[in-house]
Amino acid sequence: MTGSYRFDHFLLDPADRQLSRDGAAVELNARYLDALTLLVREAGKLVTKDRFHDQVWRGVPVTDEALTQCIKTLRRQLGDDAGNPRFIETIPKHGYRFIAPVASGDESPVPRTPVTTGKAPSPRSRFVLFGAAGTVGAGTAGAIGGLIYGFAAASQSGVGAVSVLLVMICLTTLVALMGGAGVAFGIAAAGYFSGKPWQWSVLGGAAGGMAVGAIVKLLGLDAFNLLLGHTPGDFAGGLEGAMLGGMVGLGGWLAHRHRASLRRRVAIAAAAGAAGGIVIPLTGGRLMAGSLDSLARSFPESRLRLDPVGDWFGEHGFGLISQTVTGCLEGALFGGCVIGAMLMAARDA
After folding, report:
1. Which residue has the higher pLDDT, 82 or 282?
2. Of the candidates 20, 260, 282, 284, which lies 20 to 30 Å from 57 by C-alpha distance?
3. Which CATH number applies to 5-104: 3.10.20.30, 3.40.50.2000, 1.10.10.10, 3.40.50.300?
């Protein structure tokens, strides 16, 4: 098929460099028009990401995010919906397919029978996917933190090193999973309800972190009081959850806007999380290590001590410097792993 192409109410004329709908011009920049032309010419067939890079960007180095933005713009201009496509279908991990009937400019469109493939995830499915991915990322961060703190605690606990490591890994992973679920699903919910992924991620992350932090702290205090007759020292709660969740959301928003490799975008998210992890102890709050130290000191017979961490920084005990440095580490791990996992899920969706 050569010349112009007609589909639905649209007429695409590659030679005249114009797309129109019922005679009215539809605005598209040159590259996006080239991308649409490639899709329409190959209607009913898979167009891989490599073909877009070769034939639309013509070897100019771009990230997958540039192609994603291109398809998003085409769908918006065509009035298409990624969750229930009429024109452009996503083939996860591979590329895209134009699925509407196409005819030459002087003919009526003839229905095609496209190859049956899985549909693009619906908005609800993407909400679950992104939230679950962020939660898994948080659990990974918790396991790494547990390894670090477990080695530090094992040197003075008087308990077997393997037992200390296992307890610390399980504890930090569990806490990170709960916090990560709140933050990740908060960010995903903000995108789901606004219809614009990452647009309100700061608010969503802060709200999710605050809700989970407040609930965990309330239940924790009640559980200690019920079982042991007194409440322990201070530990992380709603305010810390809101601060860290908001900074992780900010990191996600910045990473989404930045046209760079996945590694660099994860580094951006980690930097935002680290900033939140530094501010929290400086303003009197506590993250995981600070909470563990406070809890341990509330029970004189506890064998858990993080004093060796303080020794690394010339402190007697787990002081403000130790809390700030570990807060930076925890925030970086949490932010990088949560947003990194969500970005990977978004790339494959």
Report:
1. 282
2. 20
3. 1.10.10.10
Note if the pTM is more than 0.70: no
Give yes or no for a contact between 259 and 298, defined as CB atoms under 8 angstroms apart: no
Q: CA–CA separation, 333 vs 272, rounded Å?
A: 11
DSSP 90-108: EETTTEEEE-S-BEETTS-
Count of CB atoms within 10 A of residue 15's CB? 8
> If we measure between CA atoms, which residue out of 337, 349, 327 comes closest to residue 118?
349
Structure tokens at 242: 């809101």
Domain ranges (residues) in the chain: 5-104, 123-348
Distance CA 123, CA 40 (A): 25
**Four-residue CA torsion sign, 302, 304, 310, 311:** positive
Q: What does the pLDDT read at residue 348? A: 58
- Segment (H or E) for 18: strand 18-21
Q: What is the dihedral of CA 228, 229, 234, 236, to 10 degrees?
A: 60
Handedness of CA 269, 153, 287, 322 (dihedral sign): negative
100 contacts 10 by C-beta, under 8 angstroms: no
Contact 52, 67 (CB under 8 A): yes
Task: Choose from 19-33, 154-168, 269-283 the range with maximum mean pLDDT.
Answer: 269-283
Query: CA-CA-CA-CA torsion for 167, 246, 258, 177, nearest 10 degrees?
Result: 20
